[in-house]
Amino acid sequence: MATTHLTAGHTVIMPQYLDSGDEVLLFRSAAEEAGARFREIVLMDSREASVERFYSRKDSHDPWHSRVTPIVERGGGSRLLESMYEDLAIGLNARSAATTITSRRGEIEETYESLVEALDLTAQ
Known about the structure:
α3 (about 45-55) crosses α5 (about 80-95). The protein has helices at about 1-5, 20-35, 45-55, 65-75, 80-95, 110-120; strands at about 40-45, 100. It is built from six helices and two strands; from the N terminus they run ααβαααβα. Strands 1-2 form a two-stranded parallel ribbon. The chain is about 55% helix and about 5% strand. It is mainly alpha-helical.
């Protein structure tokens, strides 16, 4: 579906957790197949804050969060989240083309401005 949208000239943003270069390559290949530009941009907070932010979403009435929380808990809870964070950080070290943006709780406008700058929408 992403390739179809890209081929039609639309922008596709995939909010995904990808800690593997192989996973990123699938998305990069879809963009290249469509003749589109591919950008990997990762929003990150500290490991501790990322875990806390995950658990703070329980009060958000987000249907996704209510489904994924039991999966996280069965996998080890905060230890699983910390491991996922470390895997992402290791993966990013191997992917020099990825842009990492620091995203702090409550700094919505600052994070958004950094994202727009990283996307460099004027260069299209």
